Amino acid sequence: MQWIIFMLLLFISSMEMLTQNRWKKQASAGLLENCTGCVLCSEDNGCITCHHRLFLLIWRDGIRQYGMCVHTCPPGYFGVRGLEVNRCTKCRSPSCESCFSRDFCMKCKDKFYLYKGQCFRQCPAGTVAQPGTRECQETCEPGPWSEWSACTHESRTCGCRWGVETRVREVPEAAREEGTACPALLETRRCRMKKHCPGEKTEPKNKGKKRQKKPKTERHTGT
């Protein structure tokens, strides 16, 4: 009886060794493909160190991890060069496609918007998405309008029937530095001037009075 048990255990052990040998052969075959650019490579974990111009990319499969040497890091990673090894480091945000550092995103994945290095489902309050991009930019809220200027025509305040008067409003310093698109910052409108300047001779007034036109206001969009 003991002899039968011994033979059975021997058979099981032989089968386990055969299975391990087959797996090692398969791993070795795959190792040749995954060890391109490696300086040091492992049958179990792939590349461990790479040539100085390449980056070491490590990914996990369950409890195991594998290494591969690449020229450029894939989306969701950024390259960090070191004294001993260059590594592909994963961006912290899963919605980030390309990042400058672990916490600063430069491009978000589809359906996300970029604002100050972070990715959002929609632009935060006080910002709008720029046309043609998925980047959020702060909106411009100008200050109050100034008083209307004097009515002038070619820098003169008299001697003409109609002139133009203007008013402006200021832009916050932060919006000006960031180049934020702003609404109208300058308005102009027609105005009635003194036809005769002081000291000039006056001509007889016409009997009939022409109908005055309603002043027209024009807006100029700021940049």
From TrEMBL:
UniProt entry keywords in alphabetical sequence: Developmental protein, Disulfide bond, Glycoprotein, Heparin-binding, Secreted, Sensory transduction, Signal, Wnt signaling pathway
Entry-linked Pfam families: Furin-like_2
Superkingdom of source: Eukaryota
SUPFAM superfamilies to which the protein is assigned, alphabetical: Growth factor receptor domain
Compositional bias per record (Basic residues), positions renumbered to this chain: 207-217
GO biological process: Wnt signaling pathway
GO annotations of cellular component type: extracellular region
Primary localization: secreted
InterPro entries given in the database record: Furin_repeat (IPR006212), Growth_fac_rcpt_cys_sf (IPR009030), R-spondin (IPR051514), Rspo_Fu-CRD_dom (IPR043601), TSP1_rpt (IPR000884), TSP1_rpt_sf (IPR036383)
Subcellular location field: Secreted
Ranges of residues in domain R-spondin Fu-CRD: 35-136
Region (Disordered) residue spans: 196-223
Signal sequence annotation: 1-19
UniProt cross-references to Gene3D superfamilies, sorted A to Z: Hormone Receptor, Insulin-like Growth Factor Receptor 1, Chain A, domain 2, Thrombospondin type-1 (TSP1) repeat
Record-stated family: Belongs to the R-spondin family.
Listed name of the protein: R-spondin-2
Taxonomic lineage of the native organism: Eukaryota, Metazoa, Chordata, Craniata, Vertebrata
